[in-house]
Every structure is written in C-alpha cells, then in structure tokens.
Design brief:
The structure is a single chain. This protein is mainly α. Among the domains are: 91 residues, Orthogonal Bundle (Cytochrome Bc1 Complex, Chain D, domain 2), CATH 1.10.760.10; 91 residues, Cytochrome Bc1 Complex, Chain D, domain 2. The chain contains twelve helices and four strands. The strands form two sheets. The chain has a two-stranded antiparallel ribbon. Strands 3-4 form a two-stranded antiparallel ribbon. It starts with a helix and ends with a helix.
C-alpha cells in the first residue's frame, strides 16, 4: 500500500470516529423535567398532537456508545485497521486462511492420505477409493465432462480410449495437476473458403465418412502443406501437442462437415484448468485413479 493511501485510510478512519464522538458528546445535555413546563423544550415536531421533547440519550445508552468507542480503539491497536499498521497481534487474513488450510489438511490426511502411495492402477480397482474419487469428480469435473464422464461439446469424453494428451495414469495425473491449453489456429484466411471445404472433405475421408473424392484429393495437398506438423501425415494426431486423431471418427467439436469446416475456418481454443492449488496432491492422485477407471469400464 502506498504512502498516500495508507495516510488516507488512517485519516478517514480517525476523522470519522472523532466526528461521531463529537456528535455524541455535543448532544449530551441535562434531561428536561416533565414537571416544569417552562423548561420543557421540544424539537418542534408534532404528530397527531404528540410533541417530541429534545431530551438526551438515556445514561445507560450513552455509556454503551462510549464502550463501543473504547472497543474500537483497542481493536485498531490490536488488529490491522489503520492503513498498513499490522496490529499488535500481527494478525492477517492470509495467516488465518493458512491456519484453516493446515487444519483441513491434518483432518483429511487420514481420509485421502492413506491412498497417496498406492499406484493408480491398483487404486482404480479399490471400490472404497473409487467412491471417494466419484465425489471428487462430481464436485470438480462433472460440470464440464458430465456426471458420467461422457464429455460435452468441447470437453473430452473420459470413458473411451481416445486421449488428447495420453491416457496413461501418469499423463492423466499430469493433465489434472498442471492443466492443458489446446489451440487450433484459424486457417480460413490462409486457405480461403474453397480450401477449407476441400480439406474438410479430406478429413472426412480419413475418418471413413462420406465425402467428395475430388475435393478430398485437392484437400490432401493443403493438408500436407499446413496440417501434418500437428496431426501427422497419417492424421493420427500428436499427444505431445494435444493434436487429435482425425482417423477415428471421435470429435471434440462435432464431426459433421459444417463442424469440421467451422474448426478449420475459425480455429479452436480449449483450456483445462490446473487443479494443483485447488485439490492438492493426495486428492489429485485419487481423482486421477477415478478418471483412469472410467476408461477401464469400457474394455
């Protein structure tokens, strides 16, 4: 915090406290006697014939206000509340959060930690562990990949054997821990609409779908010039880059001709957020085992 804002907060806080205290003390007067009409002074407000006397606060109420001011002064000395003043106790919200996190880690160490050293392949066969993995998946992954892991438009199906970055336990764990950023560049400006159509027909041919053979032949040339660096000469993809296999008829953004053309024309960008700060290592290990188990169910 800069010097200006530090002084600004201190000045604003103390000024407001001083003004409120002044208002309170300035209105501290002797109560009006109901017996002496000459001394009776009203505020001038009349409602249905009822006049409001200009009396001070009851003594007990006034004392309570003074107590709150004393409490505020002690609080501002003990805790941070005056700019960059750390307080006598040195309390911070960051320390408080870390303390709660440490308590949570200690509490759940016996729950998740007991599986931390179990290999993922073995863990995937443990029913009790997979129940916990299912809860982790439902809370953190189902919103994108679906409750059953079957995926959604733009989000991979986790129950098959088609993996963008690899389906080994190690790769799954790496993906969950570090996240992924996939990018398919837009080719519309370079290829032109005719080129986009031709390449899409060639991709349809590679995946064994109905296609225009003449356009696919023309598209093969453009594919070899622009696409093989990521998807390979045979279209099998490249897991090191996250480039999908174009020959298996499994599509992240749809496999209809118009979908493939839209991908070629406009490109695609996908992000799998890193979970290492949110879930920690022991939970990620358990979650990776659950994701790994989803594809085992299809064997």
């Amino acid at each position: 915090m800069g010097t200006f804002w530090n002084l600004w907060i201190i000045g604003l806080t103390l000024t407001n406290l001083a003004l409120v205290l002044w208002v309170l003390l300035a209105n501290r007067k002797v109560a009006v006697s109901d017996q002496d009409e000459e001394e009776n002074k009203t505020t001038g407000h009349v409602y249905d014939g009822i006049e409001e006397y200009d009396n001070p606060l009851p003594r007990w109420w006034f004392i309570m206000f003074i107590v709150t001011f004393v409490y505020a002064g002690v609080y501002l000395l003990v805790y941070p509340g005056l700019g960059s003043w750390p307080g006598l106790f040195g309390w911070t919200s960051v320390k408080e959060l870390r303390g709660h996190q440490q308590q949570a880690d200690a509490r759940y160490a016996d729950t998740f930690g007991i599986y931390a050293n179990t290999p993922i392949e073995q863990l995937a066969q443990n029913p009790d562990a997979m129940k916990m993995g299912l809860r982790l998946f439902s809370n953190n992954c189902a919103v994108c990949h679906g409750a059953d892991g079957g995926g959604n438009y733009g989000f991979p199906n986790l129950t098959d054997h088609d993996w963008l970055y690899g389906g080994t336990p190690e790769k799954i764990k790496e993906t969950i821990t570090l996240g992924r950023k996939g990018a398919m560049p837009a080719w519309g400006a370079l290829m032109g609409e005719t080129g986009v159509v031709n390449v899409s027909e060639y991709v349809l041919q590679m995946s064994g779908q109905d296609h225009d053979a003449a356009k696919a032949e023309l598209g093969a040339k453009l594919y070899n010039q622009n696409c093989v660096a990521c998807h390979g000469v045979d279209g099998k993809g490249n897991q090191a880059l996250g480039a999908p296999n174009l020959t298996d008829d499994i599509w992240l953004y749809g496999g209809e001709p118009q979908d493939i053309r839209a991908t070629l024309r406009n490109g695609r960008n996908g992000v799998m957020p890193a979970q290492q700060e949110l879930l920690k290592a022991d939970r990620i290990h358990l979650l990776a085992a659950y994701v790994y188990s989803l594809s085992l169910e299809q064997e």
